[in-house]
Amino acid sequence: MIEFQKVGVVYNNEVEALKNIDLVIKGPTITGIIGPNGSGKSTLLKAALGVVRASGKVMLDGIQANKALKRIAYVAQKSSIDLSFPITVRECVALGTLPSLGLFKRITREEWESVDKALEIVGLSEQSQRQISALSGGQFQRVLIARCLVQNAEYLFLDEPFVGVDMVSEDIIIKILKDLKSKGKTILIVHHDLNKVEGYFDQVVMLNREIIAAGKTAQVFTVPNLKRAYGENILVERGE
Ligand SMILES: Nc1ncnc2c1ncn2[C@@H]1O[C@H](COP(=O)(O)OP(=O)(O)OP(=O)(O)O)[C@@H](O)[C@H]1O
């Protein structure tokens, strides 16, 4: 269970990105965090990870979340990742073993086996020796998902995992995430494509610096709530 208790984030003493966030997310779940541009979606994940200074508290099963980081696998927005870093697909996935391994220990044979298994699951076994710079956007996102699988964390925080991703990769990723949920994982996804919300998420957090609504998708993903979060123009965007 993730609990946000009165969480607020102000950047540079001037931009109030999040205000008074009180939120409880009970897993297993695939929860979508949606809201207009600049509504604080990424900041919500970063506040939980402790990578931005936040007021209030975020608790993970009763422990302060930033003290339980081994239990969270995080995939940042693709734009913030350096794709030119000289590393193979297999090595990149193996980085998922680091939280349990510590920096100076060798990766064991079992861990390499779990890396290869994860590559198989995401359908990239044949690409394992390629440089990550040679991959398509969708393949690279699958590499990052494979890294989460290796990390075997109970919580997955994914920031816009479907941006710049082809349909084949998107289908593979959502299938894997649904399988992880069925195995008890709690998955939070920052997402902007409203067409996919009902198909992908069992719960939704609708955000616009404050919580607009949160709960089961059918109850939260409604026209009145969408209008409150995005303004009247949302009806045009949804084609209604
Ligand atoms: N490091 C930062 N320094 C200053 N302001 C920031 C920083 N990061 C985010 N912001 C501002 O905080 C607000 C919320 O940003 P955030 O990235 O969390 O929103 P978002 O909903 O994820 O946006 P998007 O959909 O555009 O990715 C925005 O006004 C943004 O410009």
TrEMBL record:
Q: Which UniProt keywords apply?
A: ATP-binding, Nucleotide-binding, Transport
Q: What SMART domains would the database entry show?
A: AAA
* Signal sequence region: none
For this protein, the record's InterPro entries field holds: AAA+_ATPase, ABC_transporter-like_ATP-bd, ABC_transporter-like_CS, Metal_Ion_Import_ABC, P-loop_NTPase
Q: Which residues form the ABC transporter domain?
A: 2-234
Does the record's keyword annotation contain Transport? yes
The answer to whether the entry has keyword Cell inner membrane is: no
Q: Which GO terms describe its molecular function?
A: ATP binding; ATP hydrolysis activity
The similarity annotation says: Belongs to the ABC transporter superfamily.
This protein's name: Manganese ABC transporter ATP-binding protein
